[in-house]
Design goal:
mainly alpha
């Protein structure tokens, strides 16, 4: 393999990795702001008991571990996608498989996020749940990211 061919493959792999990161940022921004708004509502605007705070802290810690593991997997998927693009130099079966696997992990992250939201909701009193539900609906339907 010539130096120019190696350089071309390296450039393609780099561009593919950038494209993967960009695609991830485009596909994943909504859960993070929603989660932040919900946490702000929970911790700053609701009258939580000490027990509720403690339970919510445990829920958040568990979620952080699960989220980080999925995010690591998505970064690995981006690297596999870059390798597949460099190898196939087009939209081939390896590229398609890498994209499918990446989408599976994105779906898993969305499911874990929703499980987290429902776990937080379960800690709340009925009057708190009503405010929380309105905030969830707003976060999911607000056209502004």
């Amino acid at each position: 393999m010539t130096k120019s061919r190696i350089a071309l493959v390296a450039i393609i792999a780099f561009l593919a990795a950038l494209a993967g990161v960009a695609a991830g940022r485009i596909m994943l921004p909504a859960p993070q702001p929603s989660e932040t708004e919900l946490h702000a509502l929970l911790h700053r605007q609701m009258d939580l008991t000490a027990d509720q705070h403690a339970r919510l802290d445990r829920i958040e810690q568990d979620f952080a571990v699960r989220r980080k593991a999925l995010e690591r997997g998505m970064r690995s998927d981006n690297a596999r996608l870059a390798e597949a693009i460099a190898a196939e130099q087009g939209y081939g079966p390896r590229v398609s498989a890498a994209i499918d696997h990446s989408h599976m992990l994105m779906g898993d992250l969305q499911k874990v996020t929703l499980e987290h939201i429902f776990a937080m909701r379960a800690v709340l009193r009925p009057d708190q749940k009503a405010r929380f539900d309105r905030a969830v609906t707003k976060a999911l339907t607000d056209p502004k990211p």
